[in-house]
Amino acid sequence: MLDVGRHPNIELLAYSEVEKVEGQAGDFKVAIRRKARYVEEDRCTGCGACAEKCPTVVPDAFNEGLGERRAIYAYFAQGIPSTHTIDADHCRQLNGKKCGICAKTCQAEAINFDQEDRILELDVGAIIIAAGYDVFDPSPIPEYRYQKIANVVTAIEFERLLSASGPTGGHMDRPSDRAVEAEIAALEKKVKKSQKALDKLEGKFGETSAEFHKKFQAGQYKDDEDRRKWADKYAAHLAVTEPLEILKKKAEGFSVAKRLAFIQCVGSRDFRFYPFCSGYCCMHSIKEAMIAHEHEPETTSSIFGMDIRAVGKGFEEYKIRGGNNSNITYVRGRVAEITEGPNNNPIITYEDTRERKVKSQEFDMVVLATACAPIKGIAELAKTVGVELDKYNFVKTSSLSPVDTTTPGIFVCGCAESPMDVPESVAQASSAAERAAEIAFQPGNEKEKAVA
Amino acid sequence: MSKDVLVIGGGIAGMQSSLDLADMGAKVHLVEKLPSIGGKMAQLDKTFPTNDCAI
Question: What is the ipTM of this complex?
Fold first, then answer.
């Protein structure tokens, strides 16, 4: 990533979209829309002082909504370019409210609320589409109850929970427990505020709220306006502290998730959604189970799948290593249903096809190995660039020229072409680069051919 | 000299293509929709089968 940002031959156009493509192989005219960041890229030092002060809190897309960011933000800590961006949908100033705190904080004077989208015109010989994919949203699968049961998460959400730089700092805290902890934090804030008001009154009248309240309930001070207000405040205070104590007691029993279930083929190899195999999910479930075991050696994982497709260099060995060293059990069978048991524990009902028995088992957390879906907006991009898509909305190619699109001079690589894992994406990317180079360095270009 | 190349998408595939072409001496314009490059891979903690860090 850093190499890309630093390479003298790469012009990095982040936060930009392709608007128009005209011409043919060897001579494309392209228009790029550089979206307004409201932050001057050449001035911003990426120090983050603005984000510390910004009052608007927004769910963080990079952490799959499991964390929070501000309306002015760096997409992620190590992001390239390190420039911050203002989210125009949530920024108070850009939505006509009074704010501008970031502009006052920024010592580099990089904030520019008047910035507008710019259009950049380019002449290029070849185009490579590497638009990527989207994680399949499992909410339409009724039996898995994603988003209805808090502790059923997608693989990419689980990945963020595993990450040391993620919202839990790499601890396997369960979403249901995190929700309770967030509630406790919110109530504590309220209690602190009401306690402050009560302290003031206690000082004024020279007795504790509890003592006063007893007398008040016994019928004293009924005509005293100030004391009546005090009684109301104390009642409101109690209404918050009591549920807070209950939640705190509940939170004492929380521990990290140690019994994990991974469900394979969620949305893929499923004729209701995508009939194709997404290819990488078997391996990333094994990987996530292994890393979880590394973090917490007591962790046990069950991977539920029709079969484990470990096709690739070193993959089968990796699968066996997971089973031997990382407490992973591979269960052959498709999961019929997930329900919620006591303590927000998901319960899986499945058929063990080896034993020909229907069983159910309780877990701390369930991870859905979601399909690789075509990326949102690919149809518009394909139309703009002028290439055809296949029946699933991946970019159309043929088996003997797997990086050539239907238009000469335009190539494709990575998951925009079809689902694939990282090593395959890298190999295909180099292949697409080579095909593009054939055009870029064609003899007979008006400029002299370069030697690599 | 050579003709420029446009790469659409700054994930692992787009970055690899860009670096290969740039190392060959071609001028590359890398367009990314999001504020930072890195794509899905930047969201991953580790990658299989070697459990190397993704970033």
Answer: 0.95
